[in-house]
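Customer escalation, tier 2.

The customer says the design service returned an amino acid string that "doesn't look like it belongs to this structure." They asked us to rerun it and document both sides in this ticket. The original structure tokens are below, unchanged.
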């Protein structure tokens, strides 16, 4: 059996009753039109409360995940550097060949 860490979605299948129940309940949770006309500072306070609520959901990666993500990024950056270097040399040589002159390989 697969174990998930707390706070992660499990992506379990929902029955049709649950889907319609969720869709019906979401329309009830909409704010009334007069709530949209609340004051400037009330909207700022609401925004700050929502930001704090979202920040409480953030989960820091484990050491193993952090090392894995770092290695993936470094490998990707090195591959992209190699691709850009090869393309730069190829286009530089091609332009030098077309227009004459000294290219990166003709020193």
């Amino acid at each position: 059996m697969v174990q998930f860490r707390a706070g992660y979605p499990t992506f379990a299948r929902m029955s049709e009753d649950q889907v319609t129940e969720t869709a019906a309940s979401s329309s009830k949770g909409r704010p009334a039109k007069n709530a949209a006309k609340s004051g400037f500072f009330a909207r700022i306070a609401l925004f700050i409360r929502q930001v704090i609520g979202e920040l409480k959901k953030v989960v820091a990666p484990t050491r193993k995940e952090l090392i894995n993500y770092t290695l993936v990024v470094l490998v990707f950056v090195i591959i992209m550097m190699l691709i850009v270097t090869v393309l730069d040399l190829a286009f530089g040589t091609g332009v030098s060949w077309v227009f004459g002159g000294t290219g990166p390989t003709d020193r």
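Tier 2 assessment: The sequence is consistent with the input. The radius of gyration is 27 Å. Residues 63-99 form the longest helix (37 residues). Sent an explanation to the customer and offered a walkthrough call.
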